[in-house]
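Researcher: I'd like a candidate sequence for this fold, 365 residues long. If you have to choose between options at a position, lean toward the conservative one.
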């Protein structure tokens, strides 16, 4: 469908680019794109079965101000727009695309490339055992070192990653990175603690998840018991295959935690049937624990429930010594929060393991 002078390239995965030189305007490349989509539209046979595939295309005109990167990104944005509009269509990139839509599309295009470009970093926040002051483990929390916007927090991009499915690839990367880090700390400093990785709803729906986890553990020779996967209760309520998948993960020997416990709607009966080991008590309950009786009552109820079901607990979002002391009195075994440490870059977390381990925690009397 292309002409002798056109350049066809594969950008990666299922993305291709065609460079049309000396086009007078949008018409020529648009017609070419439509011709291509029409070709792809033809059903074809594979192993005796008939298949149909479709493609979406974005068209951009070069201009003297834009470099190659910008050109490809703009073509990408037009292509995502085409994708969103439905099957097999062609969209042109116009600078007048609504600003907000443009921002989002730009972020999406950046996000798709960010994994390959190595722009994500994982920060680590310790979980501390209150009775001993020891570091029980670290939670891996992803950040995005965006080339123009600076360091972005998960709330700036996880929802979009989730919506677009990019979170599956991103999550796979975080898992490998965090497990490799835990193993390195083990080799260098004898670190025996756990590493917790957050799983999103989309990842739990991904049929490849269990194999990915198994593969990561095998490759890094990480003891499965040192890996904890955190899942929010709302995700668990969503569907039944989630429970099957949890059982499959559990069979690998990893530990499972319910994140943000108490903010969703899980019934206690449902909870009993889940193969979980840990509940992470949400910050909303911890906030009031130093003062108000209601908050104390609720924390006590959650701790009691956890004891009855033989689950460990981690109280999240501990910001001051008053809260830490109260939680210790109430019998909460593990805590996590800014009072002990904020999420830290890998080097800082490593230093924390070797130097600061008990300063804060031993002051919780
Ligand atoms: P989360 O799993 O509940 O993680 C705890 C969040 O609370 C983190 O925010 C952490 O920085 C923050 N935090 C910890 N201690 C305190 C405290 O004492 N006070 C306050 N105010 N906040 C505290 P962060 O890193 O911004 O992450 C937000 C959420 O993004 C996480 O909530 C998690 O749901 C999601 N997330 C982070 N990394 C990943 C990831 O790799 N994959 C997926 N799917 N989600 C992730
Ligand atoms: Ca978490
Ligand atoms: Ca949480």
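Model: Candidate sequence:
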């Amino acid at each position: 469908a292309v002409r002798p002078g056109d350049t066809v390239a594969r950008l990666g995965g299922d993305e291709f680019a065609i460079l049309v030189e000396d086009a007078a305007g949008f018409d020529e490349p648009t017609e070419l794109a439509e011709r291509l989509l029409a070709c792809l539209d033809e059903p074809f046979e594979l192993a005796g079965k008939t298949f149909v595939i479709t493609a979406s295309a974005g068209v951009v005109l070069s201009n003297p101000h834009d470099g190659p990167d910008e050109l490809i990104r703009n073509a990408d944005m037009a292509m995502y727009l085409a994708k969103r509009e439905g099957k097999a269509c062609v969209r042109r990139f116009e600078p007048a695309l609504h600003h907000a839509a443009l921002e989002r599309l730009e972020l999406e295009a950046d996000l798709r490339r960010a994994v390959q470009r190595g722009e994500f970093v994982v920060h680590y926040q310790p979980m501390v055992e209150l009775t001993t002051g020891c570091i029980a483990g670290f939670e891996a929390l992803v950040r995005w070192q965006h080339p123009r916007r600076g360091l972005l927090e998960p709330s700036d991009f996880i929802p979009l990653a989730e919506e677009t499915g990019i979170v599956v690839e991103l999550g796979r990367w975080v898992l490998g990175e965090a497990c490799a880090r835990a193993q390195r700390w083990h080799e260098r400093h004898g670190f025996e603690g756990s590493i917790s990785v957050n799983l999103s709803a989309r990842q739990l729906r991904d049929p490849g998840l269990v194999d990915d986890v198994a593969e990561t553990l095998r490759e890094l020779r990480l003891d499965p018991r040192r890996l904890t996967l955190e899942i929010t209760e709302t995700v668990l309520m969503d569907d039944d295959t989630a429970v099957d998948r949890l059982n499959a993960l559990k069979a690998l020997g990893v530990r499972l935690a319910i994140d943000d416990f108490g903010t969703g709607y899980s019934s206690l009966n449902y909870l009993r049937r889940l193969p979980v080991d840990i509940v992470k008590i949400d910050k909303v309950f911890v906030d009031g624990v130093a003062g108000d009786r209601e908050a104390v009552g609720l924390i006590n109820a959650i701790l009691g429930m956890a004891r009855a079901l033989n689950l460990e607990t981690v109280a999240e979002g501990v910001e001051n010594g008053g809260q830490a002391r109260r939680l210790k009195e109430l019998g909460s075994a593990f805590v996590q929060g800014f009072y002990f440490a904020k999420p830290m870059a890998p080097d800082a977390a490593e230093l924390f393991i070797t130097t600061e381990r008990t300063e804060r925690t031993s002051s919780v009397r």
